[in-house]
Write a structure and sequence with these properties.
This protein has 436 residues and is of the alpha/beta class. It is 40% helix and 17% strand. It folds into two domains: 1-45 and 202-419, Hexokinase, domain 1 (3-Layer(aba) Sandwich); 66-191 and 424-433, Nucleotidyltransferase, domain 5 (2-Layer Sandwich). The chain has 14 helices and 13 strands. It has a six-stranded mixed sheet, sandwiched between helices. Helix 2 crosses helix 11 (338-370) and helix 3 (108-119) crosses helix 4. The longest helix has 33 residues, at 338-370. It is globular and about 75 Å long.
């Protein structure tokens, strides 16, 4: 057994797949430099550092209703939200339908018409509308959002470049509704996650707030002083939430990573996301295991069975680590001897541990850049959302260990992780109510 462990670890080190292959301080310093570049000027560096013109210090009026829209992936959700005097949210009139443009291309008129169909029944509930728009968008100073690109599922090219809040209100006005008092606040899901953490933990002694998502993709939001945002030179006081677009951080740790990234769509973009997120961890593991087979770390018997099952995804990768003896899992069914079983476990666990270390670097950079969390009694609240973070075996555990070792022990910055249910909905509600 020692022999296969040694061979497997040598293989992992050779291809830079171990967490030890990542210099945490060096990588964090580089991440911080990219954050600074993104704050200096638009289009500089790998991190967009998108200003949101949204404060994390909004005071919420109890019992005031807000209409909430949530466009993400292939679904469009609508509801009405209000908060009690203790900031407990009430969600009512909830409805979910498909996003326009999923099944076939739609015009801008069809797109906003479909959205208006869902908003119209709620139109008299409130003059404030919070819109969680989980696609790449530039946020304007009046809190509208202008789509830059849609994910491949949504086919609505005419909508690119149109302000989604104004366009929606224009369609409602065309239908005869008085929208003169109605205002729309557009935020992305990571910013909404930060706001949800703020309002849900408002009575807790936190020094700062971070929104973090690790699901199919990944992103981070934190609070920055306006004086540090050089590309918004007109703002010198106060602070606002910055959408980091952290998934685009440029990083290729090793040659297997390069091989994998070159096989993906848009290999020039979203390197960091392809190292840690749910859409890619399983696919990257497939590439690593194929190389392990080629180098005979895994046996010919394993290779034959592995070729007979579907390409690996993140869920099935995690299943093997969760229950490595469960024969109903097809990765377990590939095993014919203990050497293969051990090597497979070590390889998959190392991929997750490295992803966790990279995740911890992302979060640590956001905490350090925020300047918050120096007093352990007043830590930074990290509202972490996303199924990959919580459902992938050991990913959250390892991430928190790396954060503790690096931030707490080395930099004397302190954080606390929370997980707020319905974060996009709650955060969008807070954004909408901030428009009073």
């Amino acid at each position: 057994m020692k022999h296969i462990v040694a061979r497997t670890e040598s293989f992992l080190h050779e291809w830079s797949i171990t967490p030890d292959s990542i210099d945490m301080q060096k990588c964090c310093d580089d991440f911080l430099k990219e954050m600074e570049l993104g704050l200096q000027a638009k289009g500089v560096g790998s991190l967009a550092m998108i200003p949101t013109y949204t404060s994390a210090d909004t005071m919420i009026e109890p019992e005031r209703k807000v209409i909430v829209l949530d466009a993400g992936g292939t679904n469009f959700r609508t509801c009405v939200v209000s908060f009690s005097d203790t900031m407990v949210p009430t969600i009512s009139s909830y409805r979910k339908t498909g996003m326009p443009g999923v099944h076939h291309e739609v015009t801008a008129t069809e797109f906003f018409g479909a959205l208006a169909d869902q908003v119209e029944p709620l139109i008299d509930e409130s003059d404030q509308i919070g819109f969680c728009f989980s696609y790449a968008a530039e946020i304007t100073e009046d809190h509208d959002g202008i789509p830059l690109v849609f994910s491949k599922e949504i086919k609505a090219p005419q909508v690119i470049g149109m302000p989604v809040g104004k366009s929606l209100l224009d369609e409602l006005a065309r239908r005869g509704h008085d929208v003169s008092r109605k205002r729309v606040a557009v935020v992305n899901d990571t910013v909404a996650t930060l706001l949800a953490g703020k309002v849900a933990t408002g009575v807790s002694p936190y020094d700062g707030y971070i929104g973090f998502i690790l699901g199919t993709g990944t992103n981070t939001a934190y609070v920055e002083s306006n004086s540090q945002i050089a590309k918004l030179s007109s703002l010198s006081s106060g602070s606002q939430i910055i959408n980091v677009e952290s998934g685009n951080y440029e990083l290729i740790p090793g040659e297997l990573d390069r091989r994998f990234i070159n096989s993906t769509k848009q290999p020039e973009n979203y390197h960091f996301e392809k190292m840690i997120s749910g859409a890619y961890l399983g696919s990257f593991s497939q590439v690593v295991l194929e190389e392990a087979i080629a180098e005979r770390i895994l046996s010919e018997e394993f290779a034959e069975r592995f070729l007979a099952i579907p390409p690996l995804d993140t869920t099935r990768m995690s299943h093997y680590l969760e229950m490595p003896h469960n024969q109903s899992y097809n990765m377990v069914s590939c095993i014919t001897n203990e050497a293969d079983a051990t090597a497979l476990y070590l390889i998959l666990d190392s991929i997750i541990a490295r992803a966790a270390k990279l995740t911890a670097i992302n979060l640590s950079a956001a905490v350090l850049k925020s300047g918050s969390g120096e007093n352990p009694r007043y830590p930074v609240c990290i509202n972490a959302d996303g199924t990959t973070f919580y459902k992938t075996e050991n990913l959250d555990l390892y991430t928190k260990q790396y954060v503790t070792d690096f931030l707490h022990r080395r930099h004397h910055r302190f954080v606390r992780f929370v997980n707020i249910d319905d974060s996009p909905t709650i955060g969008a509600a807070v954004a909408g109510l901030s428009l009073l």
